[in-house]
Amino acid sequence: AVTADGAGAAPRGSPDASLDPDHLYNVLFVGDSHVGKTSFLYRLQADTFNPHLTATVGLDYQVKHLVVDNRRFALRLWDSAGQERYRSITKQFFRKADGVVLMYDITSEYSFSDVRYWLSCIQEGAEEGVTILLLGNKTDCAAERQVPTEEGERLAKEHQLIFFECSAASGHNVSESMVSLIRLLQVHEDELKKKAEEIPKPPQKKKGCCW
Amino acid sequence: QEYEEKTGRAHRPLSPKQNVRKNLDFEPLSTTALILEDRPANLPAKPAEEAQKHRQQYEEMVVQAKKRELKEAQKRKKQLEERCKLEDSIGNAVLTWNNEILPNWETMCCSRKVRDLWWQGIPPSVRGKVWSLAIGNELNITHELYDICLARAKEKWRSLSTGGAEVECEDAGFSAADREASLELIKLDISRTFPSLCIFQQGGPYHDTLHSILGAYTCYRPDVGYVQGMSFIAAVLILNLDTADAFIAFSNLLNKPCQMAFFRVDHGLMLTYFAAFEVFFEENLPKLFAHFKKNNLTPDIYLIDWIFTLYSKSLPLDLACRVWDVFCRDGEEFLFRTALGILRLFEDILTKMDFIHIAQFLTKLPEDLPSEEFFTSIAAIQMQSRNKKWAQVKRMLIFGNR
């Protein structure tokens, strides 16, 4: 039950993704330079692979409307520059994120070893309990693989992250991973709501409208 | 997205529908296209009165068609004249720059006449020379120094690719891994610099040049190193200057206070620049400023990309070069004035957008930005706030922060 507004019209009877969303989440994309963050977002929006994307400087922004389980979601996607120098800029946006997509490149051992560094940044900067999706990109380059799937799985388990391997070039697991992220974000939101109801005087709930 | 489509369409030159209509207007290209056919023999003859009326109508049509043609011909002639005039004025400008201004640079560069000519855009054939002169060479970099830096960079690349022993360089204190990552990053970023031009990519004519300049810079300034965004600046310079001169301009450009603050990611100073920008933002566009405030849209969201790449990534290249022209004339203040010009040009659209759509719009500006409107919009921005100029406002903010 997944439809995206970018890729063709939604089937009859299912809600129109571009209408007012039921839920709105801020999702920040981080990971080393050149692991494919911008390409992944391009694939998610346009459902094609664009080999001519430029390096991200600072941050880029996009909105993606999706319908999952008959509910409308709007994702505000923040694409960050991967270079170390920019990390101090990226860091200030962690706090605002409901979810973080942490990406590495399965053909680069280096980018995988940096995942731990990025996790510490998230721990430091983001709200507690932020939903994290670990993505190993470039499965289409199987011949150059340096990071075995099991290593990604192990790391994900250790830190309780959702984990997918994907390919922005082929489209493999691109929307699947986003749907998983959305479902988890929603579970998390429901939990927060419940908690808020249990407490007699609910604290000011974080509203998704502007930040 | 919706907004982007709407504005995108509004600026596109001709929709297919308009094209069809235009063709209809042009159709009677010659009056011979209007031939009065004889009445088919199988039909009864027209009454004389009706025949007379039809003849008259026909003649009127011919007159109209002739008139239209004449008008069209005049319009074409005028267009041709305007094009010739434009070409002439570029030709004249080249002559003026080459024969009058460049030989007398020191005395003439600040004159009213030169400044006006400068604003209209420097002709591409003299652009590089003017940029070089305007940026200057405070660092006293010579072609020999460039060769030395490049040789050092090449040595490093070699030792990295053979996995050889540590090369000692003056950049002690920077870990080998950092340096390696930085050199690796240059390689990856070169092919991601103006990919649509297909000249900086592997095998392209300027691939090695870009690689050399960035590599040489990391040896010249190991304390700054390579920072994403630099490849765009170097690329624009390469398009207008010889390699060594491009390196000299590149190093001197990055040495300017604003560029140093950004490329070293000096947060405090960057915030000062943003704060100064906001002073002029509020002054020039109070309504939009309030709208941005309401949506928590801070200037870093869009300025980081614009300042780091000097607009070369977000504006069409010809427009970016014209921004560079005046940036070379007026300095950093023009970068912020340009930003305000962009905001002013799209004020109506932006005031109807929410946070994420503004952010998205400003980091991906429409590709068919009309150049004259764009510069008119920049010209309308006043870089004076309560009698204070950019530099004064900046200075006050710096001291205020201390």
Automatic annotation (TrEMBL), chain A:
Molecular function GO labels: GTP binding; GTPase activity
UniProt entry keywords in alphabetical sequence: GTP-binding, Lipoprotein, Nucleotide-binding
Top-level division of the source organism's lineage: Eukaryota
Signal sequence interval, chain numbering: none
CDD domains: Rab
One Pfam family hit: Ras
Coiled-coil regions listed in the entry: none
InterPro entries: P-loop_NTPase, Rab, Small_GTP-bd, Small_GTPase
PANTHER family registered for this protein in UniProt: RAS-RELATED PROTEIN RAB
The name this protein goes by in its record: Ras-related protein Rab-44
UniProtKB/TrEMBL annotation, chain B:
Alphabetical list of SUPFAM superfamilies matching this protein: Ypt/Rab-GAP domain of gyp1p (SSF47923)
Keywords: Coiled coil
Signal peptide residue numbers: none
Region (Disordered): 1-23
Keyword Coiled coil carried by entry: yes
Molecular-function GO term, any one: small GTPase binding
GO biological process: vesicle-mediated transport
Coiled coil segments of this chain: 48-90
Domain Rab-GAP TBC stretches: 121-331
GO annotations of cellular component type: cytoplasmic vesicle; vacuole
Designated name of the protein: TBC1 domain family member 14
Source organism of the structure: Eurypyga helias (Sunbittern)
